[in-house]
Specification:
The chain is an all-alpha fold. Helices cover 76% and strands 0% of the residues.
């Protein structure tokens, strides 16, 4: 049977999307991240491929493209939900600080572990390998925290988004130090970021002003094409391209703030807001599709046997322990005792995989087992699942207690009302006598 003919591919892709939709339902009920179910589906498909076909399929090009598009969609999706209000400045800055300190602390500790336990791993290369393992996965976190209260949910959206962006910038800064022809000094890096911000703001204003004038109904995917083009061109020019996506999302989500004063005369708010609303829906749907195929294809490419290697397990457990040790210290410093379940919501995912495959050939260490990557992703996701289930159970218990107290109060009120009615009736009878 030719499983790669056009009609079979359409059937397979459709079934995967339907299953992904069902996995989202399972995730909401059980708090098991749908990402884990998608990876498991990929592993099952890998078994079927090896059973029914002898063809060797190179999934890496598809995985790389899906990862880049997925990353753009996820950051854009998060940016479109960020409201820049005066009262949110402190939460945003605090989330940014926690994301940065957590990234640096986790990367340093992970680099020490990799340097000690992986043969031929210099400290410089250990930092490059440690950085992807230190980035929070907004692809897993954002869909998983809807059941938390608003402040905690908001914190996780901000933190994971900043972790994505700063982690990618840090990774490419470290990689650039391997290339003597690139300016990898802190000053050169700062200039790069500043230039990216200026280009992003100019491009964001231009896109909004141009697209509000376009009367065609089919313009949202044109807009996405423009954003993808800007990202890819920015990458070729060695800019921090993800900042372009983030800043565009912030500008269109907070148009009244960015088009204040005299600029407000150029903004047709109703038309621009319609673009924002429709873009939000398209981004959400596109992120779902891309995320689905990315993690399924990742499941198709992984080697399960590496999970049963005791050396892989030891290094992976140490890395996972270091994640929560650093996170405990930071959250305790910023939030005090109220750090549950935030402490355990630190999964690794899409960007970890994407950056791992982006490590240049001159930096690759043959003794590093890819199973470590898989172990950390699955382990951190399972820890988050456990924490979310515990939190949900606690919330259900609290709601039950509130219901019981409400019933008791209702019963007491009924008794008081009954006594009052009896007393009033006795008074009336006494007067009649």
């Amino acid at each position: 049977m030719d499983i790669f003919n056009s009609y079979n591919l359409i059937i397979e892709a459709s079934i995967i999307l339907i299953l992904s939709f069902l996995f989202n339902g399972v995730s909401k009920r059980t708090n098991i991240p749908s990402v884990l179910l998608l990876i498991l589906l990929g592993v099952i498909l890998q078994f079927f491929l090896k059973t029914f076909t002898s063809e060797e399929v190179d999934f890496f090009p598809a995985l790389e493209v899906l990862g880049i598009v997925g990353l753009i969609m996820i950051v854009l999706e998060a940016a479109l939900e960020l409201e820049l209000k005066r009262e949110k400045i402190i939460p945003i800055l605090r989330s940014m600080a926690i994301a940065l300190i957590g990234l640096l602390g986790s990367a340093w500790l992970a680099a020490v572990i990799l340097h000690e336990f992986i043969p031929d791993m210099s400290m410089e290369l250990a930092w490059i390998y440690a950085t992807p393992l230190s980035i929070l996965s907004s692809a897993i976190i954002i869909p998983s925290v809807n059941s938390l209260d608003e402040k905690k949910k908001e914190f996780h959206i901000y933190e994971s988004t900043f972790s994505d962006i700063m982690g990618i910038m840090m990774f490419y800064f470290l990689v650039s130090k391997l290339n003597p022809s690139e300016d990898s000094s802190p000053a050169g890096f700062a200039i790069n970021v500043l230039l990216t911000i200026v280009i992003s703001l100019v491009a964001s204003y231009a896109i909004i002003l141009i697209f509000q004038k376009i009367k065609s109904q089919a313009k949202l995917f044109l807009l996405l094409a423009v954003l993808l083009l800007l990202y890819a061109v920015g990458k070729q020019l060695h800019l921090s391209s993800l900042l372009i996506i983030l800043i565009f999302g912030l500008v269109i989500a907070n148009m009244k703030l960015f088009f204040g004063g005299k600029l407000s005369h150029f903004l047709e708010y109703d038309k621009a807001h319609r673009i924002y609303h429709e873009l939000h829906i398209v981004t959400l749907e596109t992120a779902f599709v891309v995320r689905t195929f990315f993690f399924v294809i990742f499941g198709l490419t992984i080697t399960i046997t590496s999970l049963f290697n005791w050396e892989v397990a030891l290094v992976s457990i140490l890395l996972i322990a270091s994640i929560y040790l650093v996170r405990f210290v930071i959250l305790r410093t910023f939030f005090g005792a109220d750090i549950i379940p935030q402490l355990f919501i630190a999964p690794r995912g899409l960007i970890t995989i994407l950056l791992f495959y982006a490590i240049p050939s001159q930096a690759q260490v043959s003794s590093f087992e890819p199973g470590i990557l898989l172990f950390v992703i699955i382990g951190s996701s399972l820890v988050m699942t456990w924490a979310m289930i515990k939190e949900k159970s606690k919330m259900n218990t609290l709601l039950d207690q509130i219901d019981e107290e409400f019933e008791e109060l209702s019963a007491e009120n009924s008794a008081i009302e009954s006594e009052g009615t009896d007393g009033l009736q006795k008074g009336k009878n006494f007067n009649n006598e």
